[in-house]
């Protein structure tokens, strides 16, 4: 049997090999907000998210692009895409959402509107199809919903996805992998949990004869590529 | 039209193979009604759990059952497959609602040993109706009674399953229900 986690281990290797953006993330953007929706997905004007939520978030790191509501929803989503389990921490513990937030305020700013609309549509779909906010659903229902988004089955639900819901899912998945398995410099892969998960030792500038011995795993360097002088931070 | 002429016409239209089909199973459901709209909980507009099914009329030689759900109304050459499940014990009288979507979750005791095949969504689980708006689609829940315990791996497609059970189907039946999505307002 292949589990989701096994699949992601394979995918993560590709992400670790260089999927992370190459530019530095800086500069804050105006926070975005999810619509305030009732059980039927009807939008109401008394939105309580935004700057105030960010300021009230307390222990949360300052958000650069996402609103507090978006951050929390995205945290719940990535927690199902790469869940923590007996095999170790998952995307939440890796800080994948921090990576995405920083990236949306910088090199991935072109995707910020897709996140705003996509997350709002996903939340509307959760309420119309499963009767509650995504964050409040049981994990099995969360997984079922994400499968519907992934396969495009949610597209014609009236939730308001732009085109196929599968397109938004692909964006989420790609960025979750990047945030879990990319270089920690970009805000994700906190404490190298992503690299530990897939057994990636980190960037090695030289491979010694000892490293090449059969049956011996290379030492885990636990260093960002930018800890080496050869790599320059853009 | 006389009975003999009617038989002759049907043989000409359907061919002799149609007369060799297996006896009919009666397929029903506590929640699905033949020809009626499928409740939202069994679709992508609801919880998208698998519906309960019941069957009767299986021959004594039945060792296992298999179930396929497909939709022939899609604009594709072949029906779109929503569900493939097989190795259902021959003692089973149906399928309970909400078959697990996680392969690691055990099947309900009454269908222990059952496995799911790969649907058109490329996943080994039930995914209900999610048709494009425009017209009602018909969803065929087909049940096959099989006279052998076949060594079938999990994850078979509909075509692979039908090929594997060929020559072992001793009865079959179906329940057809419909679902339609309305265009966005």
A few lines on this structure:
The complex is a heterodimer of chains A (234) and B (185). Chain A is an all-alpha fold and 234 residues long. Chain A contains 9 helices and 2 strands, in the order αββαααααααα.
Structural write-up:
The complex is a heterodimer of chains A (234) and B (185). With 234 residues, chain A is mainly alpha-helical. Chain A has one domain (4-197). Chain A is built from 9 helices and 2 strands, in the order αββαααααααα. Chain A has helices at residues 4-16, 51-56, 68-81, 91-94, 96-104, 112-130, 139-151, 165-181, 193-198; strands at residues 36-37, 43-44. A two-stranded antiparallel sheet of chain A has the order 1-2. Chain A is elongated and about 60 Å long. The model of chain A is unreliable at 1-58 (pLDDT under 50). Chain B contains 2 helices and 8 strands. Chain B has one domain: Phosphatidylethanolamine-binding Protein (Alpha-Beta Complex), CATH 3.90.280.10.
Instruction: Could you tell me the CATH topology label of chain B.
Output: Phosphatidylethanolamine-binding Protein
Oligomer: heterodimer
User: What pair of chains forms the biggest interface?
Assistant: A-B, 19 and 22 residues
Beta-strand percent range of chain A? under 5%
Count of β-strands of chain A = 2
Number of domains of chain A: 1
């Amino acid at each position: 049997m292949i589990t989701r986690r096994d699949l992601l281990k394979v995918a993560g290797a590709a992400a670790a090999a260089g999927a992370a953006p190459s530019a530095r993330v800086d500069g804050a953007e105006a926070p975005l907000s999810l619509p305030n929706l009732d059980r039927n997905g009807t939008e109401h004007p008394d939105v309580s998210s935004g700057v105030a939520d960010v300021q009230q978030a307390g222990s949360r790191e300052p958000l650069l692009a996402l609103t507090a509501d978006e951050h929390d929803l995205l945290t719940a989503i990535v927690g199902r895409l790469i869940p923590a389990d007996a095999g170790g921490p998952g995307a939440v513990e890796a800080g994948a959402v921090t990576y995405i937030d920083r990236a949306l305020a910088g090199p991935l700013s072109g995707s910020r509107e897709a996140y705003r609309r996509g997350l709002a549509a996903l939340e509307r779909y959760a309420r119309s199809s499963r009767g509650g906010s995504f964050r409040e659903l049981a994990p099995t229902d969360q997984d079922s919903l994400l499968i519907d988004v992934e396969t495009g089955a949610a597209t014609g639900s009236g939730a308001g996805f732009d085109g196929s819901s599968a397109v938004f899912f692909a964006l989420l998945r790609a960025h979750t992998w990047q945030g879990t398995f990319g270089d920690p410099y970009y805000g994700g892969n906190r404490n190298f949990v992503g690299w530990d998960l897939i057994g990636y030792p980190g960037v090695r500038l030289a491979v010694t004869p000892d490293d090449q011995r059969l049956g011996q795993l290379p030492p885990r360097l636990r260093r960002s590529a930018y800890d080496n002088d050869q790599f320059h931070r853009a | 039209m006389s009975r003999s002429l009617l038989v002759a016409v049907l043989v000409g239209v359907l061919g002799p193979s149609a007369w060799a089909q297996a006896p009919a199973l009666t397929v029903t459901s506590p929640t699905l009604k033949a020809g009626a709209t499928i409740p939202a909980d069994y679709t992508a507009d609801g919880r998208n759990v698998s519906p309960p099914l019941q069957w009767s009329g299986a021959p004594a030689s039945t060792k296992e059952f298999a179930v396929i759900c497909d939709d022939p109304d899609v604009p594709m050459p072949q029906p779109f497959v929503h569900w493939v499940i097989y190795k259902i014990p021959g003692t089973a009288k149906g399928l309970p609602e909400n078959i697990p979507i996680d392969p690691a979750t055990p099947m309900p005791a009454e269908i222990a040993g059952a496995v799911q095949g790969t649907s058109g969504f490329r996943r080994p689980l039930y995914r209900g109706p999610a048709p494009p708006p425009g017209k009602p689609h018909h969803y065929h829940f087909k049940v096959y009674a099989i006279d052998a315990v076949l060594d079938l791996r999990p994850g078979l497609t509909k075509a692979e399953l039908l090929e594997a059970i060929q020559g072992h189907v001793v009865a079959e039946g179906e329940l057809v229900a419909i679902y339609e999505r309305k265009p966005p307002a």
